[in-house]
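Collaborator request, handled under Task 6.
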Amino acid sequence: MAKMGSTSAAAPSWRATLLGVLAVVLWGTAIACSRSLSEKLGTLTAPTVLFAVGGAPGLLPVLLDGGRRRALVRLPWRYVLGCGALFVVYMVGLYGAIGLAADRQQLLLVTLINYLWPGLTLLLSLPLCGQRPVWALLAPGLAFAFAGVALALAGPEWRALLAAPTALGRAVLVPWGLALLAAVAWALYSNLSRRWGGGAEAGAVPLFLLASAAVFGVARYYYPEDSVWTREAWGEIAFIAVFPTLLAYSFWDIAMRRGHLPLIAALANAIPLLSIGVAYLYLGVKPATTVWTAGALIVLGSAMARAGVVDGIAARAQP
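Structure tokens returned to the collaborator:
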């Protein structure tokens, strides 16, 4: 694979930016539907099937089209290996947290932790993508976002954990830690896919999905699960594999490589509240007032952080 230079100095594509917005909307449905599927198939089986079903149809047209196949071969190695590894780590963290959440109420807390990634994306864009900070907005914005997560976690689970750390450590801390791992991995992926693959003609999301399926599949082989294959489960597989998985991640990859990164990261701020709303409607889990408040703090904080990040390339181009 030939090494390609970054085109991060090119003007952002508004078509790519729009695809990023569509990805945000689709992701709002992902956690609730994925939890429902994990409850039927298992923590390891559900993502194995989802990523295989989502990745294979996306890769097949590329393999059958000579031009797209050559574009895939020309992808920079740093993008394929580095961003591919981050993609897999993100999926392991996210779907591990979704499946291991003790109940649907804890799923809401996992959701809020995971959606620290828009703010982290903006923060990491400073050293990785040349963005410039306005600390008077960026610092308090990030503080609000983290305060929102702290508020959500400062509930009965945390008090029970302090009272009995050994008994509840795995049930509480493991999902929280996996969700935080996912947030950091996705923030890194979003920035590095732009830095390492910004000039590429195509992305490698189908490959990344199949790699994720392989990791979960190997784990599933060594840790078998009982799965219930209902008609509803197949419907959820079809929806999640196509829309929040293949399309949303492909759209986001294009948006991160060619779109207006700060704007897209800012619009992604709405995902926590959207996800909580979908969980309420689809899973029937009623969020506590503190969860809504925490989600609002994360949205507010991320919006402030967005206002505190200036496109360094555009700023340097100004007279």
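The cover message to the collaborator said: "Residues 1-9, 312-319 have pLDDT under 50 and may be disordered. The two ends are 38 Å apart (CA to CA). Please let us know whether this matches your experimental observations."
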